[in-house]
């Protein structure tokens, strides 16, 4: 089970429509496919989605750091020496998506080697999750129409609404329109991506207090320490720390400092190994947890549902598992399908994903 080679393959797949939110917008999925080869002939795979406006990584940067720094540090390690790998990668600051994809590809290779699903290796709580769909910035009528279409076609009844970049009144009007058109049974929560000030956030949440929101996520910047504490102390819904709480230390700081009361786990930025640590900490602190999405493709989405379905806490809420619906194509041989508002893990060993070589050849950018 020795690692013999690591590949980082850049690829680009356009979105059908751009995804817009307070911290940026995405028109093309410029991601990196990571493959970990072993001396047994096993190949583990994962996907790294760079988000330069959030974590500072680019596609080219992910390829470079994996090929030039990380690969030499992990080649010759056993798939079981994950803590050694984590310690070696930690010598390099940042690069969360690159580290996470490498970590998840190792877990996938381990599952394939043992002929066991990654979900079972992690915890094996269930085999599926409810799906939450993200609604990016658009006109109110268009966002309502998208939500209705997604509910009718895929059975999804939980929606995360992007707010924070536009005038507060327009964002709150969108959320009100969604509630009025979708009814009280649908779960709605808002994500500001740090786009509002604390006072704007407080005013917006007061204006939406009658809409039965499930959560509020990252409405204002975490570095506005006093303003954020003041905001969170006023809210009557859980406040999710997302990009401000990547590591267990971040979570501890945000929660004990009164700047959040719930967290989002994204395996695309913390892998399976660090996500386990964040999960266990959240469980010990009694926090609400949602499985987030870094605008992953189908491979990244499979990694999210593999982790989220492993534990009771992470499977309790709908996970953000539908961003791939906005992509014009994907790399998997068998596309994912959301049925009755749920996404199931793939049967078989590892993550349960196989890459279509023809599609990879079409979309890769290093040839």
TrEMBL record:
Q: Which residues form the Mandelate racemase/muconate lactonizing enzyme C-terminal domain?
A: 140-238
Protein name as annotated: Enolase
Q: Which family does it belong to?
A: Belongs to the mandelate racemase/muconate lactonizing enzyme family.
Q: Which UniProt keywords apply?
A: Isomerase, Metal-binding
Q: Does the entry feature the keyword Metal-binding, yes or no? A: yes
Note the SMART domains from the entry: MR_MLE (SM00922)
Transferase found in the keyword field: no
Q: Pfam families given for it?
A: MR_MLE_C (PF13378), MR_MLE_N (PF02746)
């Amino acid at each position: 089970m020795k690692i013999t080679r690591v590949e980082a393959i850049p690829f680009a797949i356009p979105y059908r429509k751009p995804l817009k939110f307070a911290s940026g917008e995405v028109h093309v999925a410029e991601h990196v496919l990571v493959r970990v080869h072993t001396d047994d002939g096993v190949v583990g795979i994962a996907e790294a989605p760079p988000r330069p406006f959030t974590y500072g990584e680019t596609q080219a940067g992910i390829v470079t750091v994996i090929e030039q720094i990380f690969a030499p540090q992990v080649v010759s390690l056993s798939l079981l020496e994950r803590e050694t790998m984590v310690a070696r990668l930690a010598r390099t600051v940042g690069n969360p998506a690159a580290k996470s994809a490498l970590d998840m590809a190792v877990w996938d290779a381990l599952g394939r080697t043992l002929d066991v699903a990654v979900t079972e290796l992690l915890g094996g709580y269930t085999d599926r999750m409810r799906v939450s769909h993200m609604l990016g910035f658009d006109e109110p009528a268009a966002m309502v129409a998208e939500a209705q279409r997604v509910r009718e076609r895929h059975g999804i009844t939980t929606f995360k609404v992007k707010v924070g970049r536009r005038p507060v009144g327009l964002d709150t009007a969108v959320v009100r329109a969604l509630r009025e058109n979708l009814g009280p049974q649908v779960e709605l929560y808002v994500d500001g991506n740090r786009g509002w000030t604390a006072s704007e956030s407080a005013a917006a949440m007061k204006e939406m207090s009658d809409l039965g929101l499930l959560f509020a996520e990252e409405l204002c910047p975490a570095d506005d320490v006093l303003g954020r504490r003041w905001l969170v102390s006023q809210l009557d819904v859980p406040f999710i720390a997302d990009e401000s709480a990547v590591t267990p230390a971040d979570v501890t700081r945000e929660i004990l400092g009164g700047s959040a009361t719930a967290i989002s786990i994204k395996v695309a930025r913390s892998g399976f190994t660090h996500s386990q640590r964040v999960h266990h900490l959240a469980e010990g602190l009694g926090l609400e947890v949602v499985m987030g999405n870094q605008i992953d493709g189908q491979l990244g989405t499979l990694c999210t549902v593999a982790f989220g379905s492993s534990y009771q806490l992470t499977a309790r809420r709908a996970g953000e598992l539908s961003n791939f619906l906005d992509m014009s194509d994907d790399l998997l041989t068998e596309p994912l399908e959301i049925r009755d508002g749920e996404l199931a893990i793939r049967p078989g060993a590892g993550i349960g994903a196989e890459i279509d070589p023809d599609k990879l050849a079409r979309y890769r950018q290093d040839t």
